[in-house]
Amino acid sequence: MAKKSGNKQQKLTAQQKSDRIKAAKEREARxxxxxERSAKMKKIFTVVVCVILVLALGIPxxxxxVLTA
Length: 69
What we know:
- This protein has one helix spanning 14-68.
- The mean pLDDT is 87.
- It is mostly helical.
- It has one domain.
- The protein contains one helix and no strands.
- The relative contact order is 0.05.
């Protein structure tokens, strides 16, 4: 017969339970740090793109105004 793991719950000792809780907290902390890094990188990327656009639009405009004057 095939075993169904969903029907059978294991009894956990206090040490096992605390280890599982600790591991879950560590996973959550790593996931939170990853989300923060991702958000920071997105902000940096946005700023860099904006600076490039300002330069790409500003330099030719200044050059045209200098050349026509």
